[in-house]
Specification:
Elements: E1 3-6, H1 16-25, E2 30-36, H2 48-55, E3 61-67, H3 75-81, E4 85-89, H4 96-105, E5 109-114, E6 132-136, H5 150-164, E7 171-174, H6 182-188, E8 192-195, H7 197-200, H8 205-213
Parallel strand pairs: 1-8, 2-3, 3-4, 4-5, 5-6, 6-7, 7-8
Bound molecules: D-xylitol-5-phosphate (DX5) and zinc ion (ZN).
């Protein structure tokens, strides 16, 4: 099973609602919302008020990727705005385990994101507290960057580790993924594929998402209800 999560970072912010409706109509499985604060990453995007407004125009699952410092402080705001999955960066919190519990206690799913240089071992003692693992395949901060090839092995390493522990936690890959490499990313073990520029800069969003979803043809895997 492959799930496509279009990242609105590459959408037209002046026409956000129509772009969101376009990916929903095209069969997207969730909406990836990149929140950046200009501290954790060198870019500023959007916050809870924008998410709250978007909540009124779509039924898509809101997959909120927080690239912010002090995420603890803002979890409630994002939940109230309509987030259903909240992913925090391992590098952004001193008390990761507590942070994941705060997210789950709010009744939403908790994801952890690892920057390209962050070792996989950081998830070792968090497996019971995670609903998703996001492997960054670019350095966070901007859309339209090139996929870092070493991340294929990193995704495989996470998948193998989870298999060894008999844990099923979906792996999300984010950054630099398009029609040219989605199959390889998926075959490495990522089930949820984030794509921003490849979808929103394409001439035909519907066709692009349809082709992306075909990347798992011939595969038969487990899936959960994310
Ligand atoms: C990068 C963001 C990504 C990004 C993906 O910091 O987390 O979600 O928008 O964009 P593309 O698919 O263009 O690399
Ligand atoms: Zn993202």
């Amino acid at each position: 099973m492959i799930k496509i999560a279009p990242s609105i970072l590459s959408a037209d912010f002046a026409n956000l609602s129509s772009d969101v409706i376009a990916v929903e109509d095209a069969g997207a499985d969730m909406l990836h919302i990149d929140v950046m604060d200009g501290h954790f990453v060198p870019n500023i995007t959007l916050g809870a008020p924008v998410i709250k407004s978007l909540r009124k125009v779509t039924d898509l699952v809101f997959d909120v990727h927080l690239m912010i410092d002090n995420p603890e402080q803002y979890i409630k705001d994002f939940v109230l705005a309509g987030a259903q999955i909240i992913t925090v960066h391992a590098e952004a919190s001193k008390h990761l385990h507590r942070l994941l519990q705060i997210i789950r206690n709010e009744g939403v799913k908790a994801g952890i994101a690892l920057n390209p240089a962050t070792p996989v071992s950081i998830i070792e003692h968090l497996l019971d507290d995670l609903d998703m693992i996001l492997i960054m395949s670019v350095n966070p901060g901007f859309g339209g960057q090139k996929f870092i090839p070493a991340m294929y092995d990193k995704i495989s390493a996470v998948k193998e580790y989870l298999n060894k522990k008999s844990k099923y936690i979906p792996i999300q890959a984010d950054g630099g993924i398009g029609l040219d490499n989605i199959r390889k990313v998926h075959n490495s073990g990522a089930e949820i594929i984030v794509a921003g520029s490849a979808i929103f800069n394409s001439k035909n969003i519907k066709e692009t998402i349809k082709l992306m979803k075909k990347a798992d043809e011939g595969k038969n895997e487990n899936s959960n209800n994310l």
